[in-house]
Amino acid sequence: MSAIATAPAQQNPLQGMAIMAGAMIVLPVMDAIAKYMATFEAMSPGQVTFYRFFFQLVCTLPLLFFAFGWGALSAERPWMNLLRGALHGAASLLFFAAVKYMPLADVFAIYFVEPFILTALSALFLGDKVGWRRWLAIVVGFGGAMIVIQPSFEIFGLKALLPVACAFLFALYLFMNRAVGDADSPLTMQTMAGIGGTIFMIGALWIGASAGATDFAPSLPASWLGLILLLILGAVSGYAHLLVVRAFRLAPLSLLAPFQYFEIISATVLGYALFGDFPNFSKWIGILIIVASGLFIIWRERVQSRSAASA
Questions:
Q1: How far is CA 187 from CA 13, 63, 291, in A?
Q2: How far is 87 from 95, CA to CA, in rounded Å?
């Protein structure tokens, strides 16, 4: 294997937490751009998703080749990594479709049922031990999501369930990360996933456009501003996720997981500043229930890990 897989990173939890917090604050910029392109540039979510993966490759491949050469694409399990990219592409497509129709904060709040789905999948298919407390937290978390979904469902109909479908696909994507394991380096996995996502979106655009689906309508940027925003979209997608990879090398997962909820804060600020959207009181109640349930699951995971290590 190349040096990118074998060189261990020195643990620095404080630096890892700072990097993770920064990445989580920046990542919703990507989704705000997707909503802007759909709202003001009349670009379909399918086309925006394609540009997201295409410009991610444009922005990150030169860096990877400069730092590591062609070894960055030398994957031990290429098909598994390409499938991961296809799942990520499908999840991103559903997310961008959701932000076209719904406020950013609502989409993020509903999307954060993903840790509950991942915990359930790990228990059902990997045999992970999940006690009654975490199962209860999963049920309560889904209840919080229903509080957020209910008024959105009355306004947007079935489109309000798009973030739930996105969360399920992204949980499968993370589930496959465990299946792939450490056979490939994180940078190789990220690059191959970008290629897989781009290929998937080419097929999805072709099928969707052939069927006459408006959310898959192909188009070019209508203005120079749109092109610049799409470039920023790809850069944020690529480099922010590389920051996440870096953070996970500096600090353990259990320490970094709570910082994912910073995305709700950033999404709320961007949604209000750019589109005038702000969650009402009942939605804030649902958001708090989701976050509290997720944090409880993370805390129980740390307790179980420490107990196992002691045993």
A1: 20, 11, 30
A2: 12
Distance CA 291, CA 257 (A): 11
Q: How far apart are CA 132 and CA 108, in angstroms?
A: 26
Alpha helix stretches (DSSP H) within the chain: 3-6, 13-26, 28-40, 45-68, 78-101, 104-111, 114-125, 132-156, 162-180, 186-210, 224-250, 253-256, 262-275, 281-310
Q: How far is CA 177 from CA 47, 65, 164, in A?
A: 26, 23, 20
Q: What is the DSSP letter of 131?
A: -
Which tokens hold the place of 171? 């949980």
Q: Are 142 and 116 in contact (CB under 8 A)?
A: yes
Whole-angstrom distance, CA of residue 185 vs CA of residue 198: 20
Quick one: which of 7, 84, 66 has its CA closest to 246? 7
Alpha-carbon span 297 to 254, nearest angstrom: 10
> Distance (Å, rounded) from C-alpha 16 to C-alpha 257?
11
Per-residue pLDDT tens digits for 34-56: 999 999 999 999 999 999 999 98
Q: What is the mean pLDDT of residues 150-173?
A: 86
pTM of the model: 0.85
C-alpha 64/C-alpha 60 separation (Å) is: 6
CB 275 within 8 A of CB 39: yes
